[in-house]
Design a protein that fits this description.
This protein is α+β, with helices and mostly antiparallel strands. It is built from 14 helices and 18 strands. The structure holds flavin-adenine dinucleotide (FAD).
């Protein structure tokens, strides 16, 4: 870099419609990892972004583009390396046009889950989309580029027709003659894929997949005290095409923790002893897998019958519609039997969680971390995420736990099973405030241990990038697209 970090601010001041936040006013992150950042820039238009990139290029200033910077647990808004100017695209929020016949909508990088939800409610209520548990304010494009996972499926293949600004000021996009949103793969080299989990360009916008709303939603809860049997049951259901949507399996400890948060949020007047009693009465110590079926009511009913036939005798299946949850919760208010009232409190509390799989973004997922306000960056404890793909071999879940136990850290796990029968573990490491350094050490050691033992990550945070040791092709592509290495240096390269 040819100038001092601190004297940079004046460079940006001549650019129109650019918000400048000095480095010392940038908020901390959930994991309290730190980086030296000169400033955070928020362009209000595409032109101001292009101008900003030209200034960065001529002064050789590294920049770190984010869509909304809510990458909580993986570094939030912070860059991988010190000295980068953060460029947040959160003010670029165009939604539309929509191609209802292709089930695609154009969005810019700053569009959040809630922005799109509200837009669809107003203009295209026949559509919903694959919502994540990250929160209402998280982006869609940043999450897709990170190959995030929604309640319906992975978001990897949900974004096409990208417009990408490269460091030389070019905007790469599909040739209109040769591309239409109804056949998003188009023709020729899949260059768009190069901009996922990379640092080759700045993604301005793209076409996102919508899901037509269905006649009926049926939630399925499968319980078993043996995790491997439960995972095998889900794999069998995917293999037989009885399930399609993602399954989340929570550790019993994590389940109780989240339930506690859900109940105390919905019923703030209940004491912690009363909440404990409700949980004791309605929740079992088993592993619980939750998924959903969306489709025709009669087909859903038949599928549930077939699912019952296929699962292990030791697995308990509960199937319920949102309407049934509401009815039971209401009915329980009039029955003066403590166990039934507990069931009602439970059902009223989990309602919002179930909304996620119906395509309604909420912040309810944040109850998995200890926090007092709306912003996970202000959480009362430190948390960092890492993830691991489980190899399909015997004892994989036990090996994973023993690797985690060797680090003697407090952790919780959510297992995700998908249509391909792949199982990923989303691991949260929990720490007290003031333990940020230990947290980083454990995270790095665990990342290396998991990779060496055949549990590769599908996504990484800013403090894990070095441990990935990416193959040389990433560096060669970087040299081609961004020879001065000015965009997000160190990220997946
Ligand atoms: C309680 C909790 C629950 C969560 N649940 C989920 C979940 O269910 N599923 C899930 O996937 N995640 C989840 N997360 C993780 C995270 O919050 C989300 O993935 C979130 O969507 C990421 O933030 P963002 O969308 O603002 O992306 P950003 O932070 O904007 O982007 C992520 C990264 O992608 C790159 N990038 C972003 N935009 C661009 C661009 N336009 N051009 C070039 N590079 C770019 C940047 O390197 C950036 O750091 C959860 C987090 C918490 C705390």
């Amino acid at each position: 870099m040819d100038i001092e970090l601190k004297s940079q601010l004046h460079l940006w001041e001549n650019i129109d419609d650019l918000e400048i936040i000095p480095g010392d006013q940038i908020e901390p992150t959930l994991s309290r990892t730190t980086r030296e950042v000169p400033c955070l820039l928020k362009p209000g238009t595409r032109e101001s972004l292009i101008e900003l990139v030209a200034v960065a290029r001529s002064h050789k200033i590294p920049i770190y583009p984010v869509s909304r910077g809510k990458n909580w647990g993986y570094g939030a808004h912070l860059p991988v390396q010190d000295g980068c100017v953060i460029v947040s695209l959160e003010r670029l929020k165009t939604i539309g046009p929509c191609h209802p016949e292709s089930k695609k909508i154009y969005i810019e990088a700053g569009v959040s889950q809630m922005h799109l939800y509200e837009y669809l409610q107003k203009h295209y209520p026949q559509f919903t989309f694959n919502v994540t548990a990250g929160g209402s304010d998280t982006s869609i494009i940043g999450n897709c580029l990170e190959r995030g996972i929604g309640y319906y499926r992975s978001r990897t293949h949900e974004l096409h027709g990208l417009e990408v600004l490269t460091m030389d000021g070019q905007v790469l996009k599909r040739d209109k003659r040769l591309w239409h949103s109804s056949h998003p793969d188009g023709i020729g080299t899949d260059w768009e894929g190069l901009f996922f989990q990379s640092n080759f360009g700045i993604v301005l916008g793209g076409w996102f997949s919508l899901l037509p709303r269905q006649e009926r939603t049926i939630f399925l809860s499968l319980l078993n005290s043996d995790l491997d049997t439960l995972i095998d049951d889900f794999k069998k259901l995917y293999r037989n095409r009885l399930l399609k949507e993602i399954t989340h399996i929570a550790d019993p400890g994590r389940k109780e923790y989240v339930l506690n948060g859900l109940i105390s949020t919905k019923f703030p007047k209940l004491s912690s002893a009363q909440i404990d009693r409700v949980i004791q009465q309605v929740s079992s110590a088993a592993f619980q897998g939750i998924t959903a079926i969306h489709g025709r009511a009669a087909v859903g009913k038949t599928m549930v019958k077939e699912i019952r036939k296929l699962i292990s005798p030791s697995t308990t299946l509960n199937a319920f519609t949102p309407q049934k949850v509401k009815r039971l919760a209401l009915w329980s208010r009039w029955i003066p039997i403590p166990r039934i009232r507990s069931l009602g409190i439970f059902l009223e509390s989990v309602g919002e969680l179930l909304l996620l799989s119906e395509g309604t973004p909420t912040n309810i997922g944040h109850l998995g971390i200890k926090m007092h306000g709306e912003n996970p960056n202000d959480a009362d404890e430190l948390a960092v995420f890492l993830n691991a793909t489980l190899p399909p071999r015997a004892n994989a879940t036990q090996t994973l736990r023993s690797l985690l136990d060797q680090q003697a850290v407090k952790y919780s796990i959510t297992f995700i099973v998908n249509e391909e029968e792949a199982v990923s573990a989303i691991i949260t490491l929990h720490f007290e405030t003031g333990e940020a350094e230990q947290l980083q050490n454990h995270l790095k050691a665990l990342t290396t241990a998991l990779i060496e033992n055949g549990f590769p990550p599908y996504r990484a945070g800013i403090d894990q990038m070095e441990q990935l040791n990416m193959p040389p092709i990433s560096q060669q592509l970087k040299d081609f697209f961004d020879p001065l290495h000015l965009i997000a240096p160190g990220r997946y390269t």
